[in-house]
Specification:
Helix 3 (about 80-95) packs across helix 4 (about 100-120). The mean pLDDT is about 85. The radius of gyration is 20 Å and the shape is globular. About 35% of the residues are buried. Helices cover about 55% and strands about 15% of the residues. The strands form 2 sheets. Strands 1-2-3-5-7-10 form a 6-stranded mixed β-sheet, with helices on both faces. Strands 4-6-8-9 form a 4-stranded mixed β-sheet. The chain has helices at about 1-15, 45-60, 80-95, 100-120, 135-140, 170-175, 180-190, 195-200, 210-225, 230-240, 245-260, 265-280; strands spanning about 20-25, 30-35, 65-70, 75, 125-130, 130-135, 145-150, 155, 190-195, 205. By secondary structure, the chain is α/β, with parallel strands linked by helices.
């Protein structure tokens, strides 16, 4: 059921729904926009599959170093599409395969996007321009940097519709907030503004709405200024370090560091600093 449903979705996208995800490329960076603004960019089946396909193509592009993920105003993403839950999830549950059919969709589509964001060596920057809820929030939290507009709203709305934190949200928010504050957020369902998200450590920074994508672009420039091997090696190192002991983390760093010494970028930078020091 899940496989046939995914095939139906793919046919719909090929036929007429290619505008649900917009991709703009410029040099070493790309901006990906969820584009169903009248519905607040919900993760319908069509939009989800289109997003996964777009991101899979981008992460294979060796020239790209940064990917900005945002939504068409007024929202980042309202999260899982309620119509998808009613019209597609329920039939999957009623089919012979039962819950495992729905599990496949959640794992391969929603989870597939979250894993893609975290596992690629490219830098993902979430530019949260409005409400970010449910799975949409998970995609933002999975990114390497989270920039919020002053209009951003973090929406932990799972419990209100009888669901638990999903697609990595429980892991991501307990590590940012600690257990009690994460529990408070999920159980209370209180919405956080972009400013509150930055103050609590959920987001890196908050910006005037019209300057959000400018701030994201400035981060792309910072990544571009890094030697290519630093940007690509730093991400897996830091992501693994969050769950390692100190001894494990320092051992991993000790294996990685000699690789950097072999690069021309490192050697040139050292020589330039030494020449500057000798001439001063």
């Amino acid at each position: 059921m899940a496989e046939s449903y995914a095939a139906t979705v793919a046919e719909a996208i090929a036929a007429d729904r290619g505008d649900l995800v917009l991709v703009e490329r410029e040099g070493t960076r790309a901006t990906v926009t969820l584009n169903d603004p009248e519905k607040l960019n919900p993760l319908s089946a069509e939009l989800t599959v289109a997003l996964r396909r777009s991101l899979e193509e981008l992460v294979r592009d060796e020239e790209l170093r940064s990917i900005v993920l945002t939504g068409a105003d007024p929202a980042f993403s309202a999260g899982g599409d309620l119509r998808l839950m009613r019209d597609s999830a329920r039939p999957m549950l009623a089919a012979d395969g039962g819950a495992p059919q729905l599990w496949r969709w959640i794992r391969l589509e929603f989870g597939g996007i979250a894993r893609l964001i975290t596992r690629t060596d490219k830098t993902f920057i979430a530019a949260v321009n409005g409400a970010a809820a449910g799975v949409g929030l998970a995609f933002a939290l999975a990114s390497d940097l989270i920039l919020c507009s002053e209009r951003a709203v973090i929406v932990p709305a799972f419990g209100r519709i009888g669901l638990l934190p999903e697609v990595g949200n429980s892991w991501l928010l307990t590590r940012r907030l600690g257990y009690q504050r994460a529990y408070e957020l999920f159980a209370g369902g209180r919405h956080l503004s972009g400013t509150e998200a930055a103050e609590t450590g959920i987001a890196n920074s908050v910006h005037p709405h019209d300057e959000l994508l400018v701030a994201a672009d400035e981060w792309c420039e910072k990544v571009d200024r890094l030697p290519a091997h630093v940007a690509s090696m730093m991400k897996p190192l830091l992501r693994q370090a969050a769950d390692l002991t100190w001894e494990q983390a320092i051992a991993m760093e000790e294996f990685a560091e000699p690789q950097c010494f072999t690069t021309a970028e490192h050697q040139q930078a050292v020589d330039e600093l030494l020449r500057a020091a000798d001439s001063s």
